Structure formats: C-alpha cells, structure tokens
Amino acid sequence: MVAEGTPAIFVTFLMAILGYVGLMCVVLLTVKDRPWMWLWRIVVPIIFVHVLMVWVFRYDWHFDLAVRNGYVGFAIFHSALISILISVFCRQDVAQKLIHLSFVIVTLGAIGASFRYDDVAMYRFVVMGCGLVGGFGLFRFYVLDRRHKL
Questions:
Q1: Which of 11, 50, 98, 117 has the greatest count of CB atoms below 10 A from its CB?
Q2: Model confidence over 44-53: pLDDT tens digits?
Q3: CA 103 to CA 45: how far, in whole Å?
Q4: 3-class state of residue 129 by DSSP
C-alpha cells in the first residue's frame, strides 16, 4: 500500500476526477443527441486505469483493504465500473442507459467519498458541480422531455 500524499496517489485520484468529468461530458452529449462514442472511448480507459491504480496503490490487491470502510462503497463503485465496461460492448441505446445509470451511481459515491475522506476532499466542489450539471441534464432528459423512458 502506498502512503498518502505520494505522487502515485495524486495521479490515482487525478485520473478519478478526469474520468468523472469525462463521464459527465458524455452524459451531456447523450442527452443532447450529439455524437458521444468517440469521447466515451477515451473516458472508459481513464476510468479503468483509475480503478486499477486504486487496487495497486491503495489496496495492494488485498480484498480486506478494499472493503475496510464497508461493503457498500465497494459495491457502489464496482457496480458502476461493471456498468461502464459493459456499455462499451452494447448497442448505443443500451450503452446510453448504462452510462446514465453509472453517472448516478458514481455521483452518489463520489459525493459521499469527498465528504468522508480527506485525500479526496479537494475534489468536493468539482464533484458537486459535475453532479449538479449532469444530474440536471438527466432530469431534463427523463423528466422534462417525456419522450425518454428509463
């Protein structure tokens, strides 16, 4: 396990915020019916590398370290990862729903983590801002524009 404040941990969570901002941008492109697959092909590897870096640098590949703060957070983030990875292999309409679901899952987990853990607290306002912007886009897409269904 790598100590807090090291360059590896900084890069690990920088990848997280880049992946999250990219996820928000893809969500906005999907709700605006703009081409988004090109960006998704860039964002997914960033997210996947972030998760690998967490497993390497934070957990040292030990499951007990991964769940030391509870199974809920572990389940939240890994279910989002599975949804993100599956979306790459789906039809575009199914991928869009998986991306939207992933955004909601990641947003809930990231907001909670940014208030709970000091090492990611510096991203709190970025996470909340992206969550609000992306959340409003999804609200508008599914609630205000009633043509779309979950």
A1: 50
A2: 999 999 999 9
A3: 16
A4: helix
Max CA separation in the chain (angstroms): 49
DSSP per-residue string spanning 7-21:
HHHHHHHHHHHHHHH
Whose structure tokens read 């979950």? 150
Q: How far apart are CA 6 and CA 68, in angstroms?
A: 21
Q: Which helix (H) or strand (E) holds 120?
A: none
Nearest-CA neighbor of 26 among 88, 78, 109? 88
Q: Domain residue spans in the chain? A: 7-144
Q: Give residue for tokens 């853990």.
A: 117
Report which residue type is found at 22.
G
The whole-model pTM stands at 0.90
Both tokens of 101, joined, read 């679901």
- Give residues with Cβ within 8 angstroms of 68, minimum separation 6: none
Residue type for position 59: Y
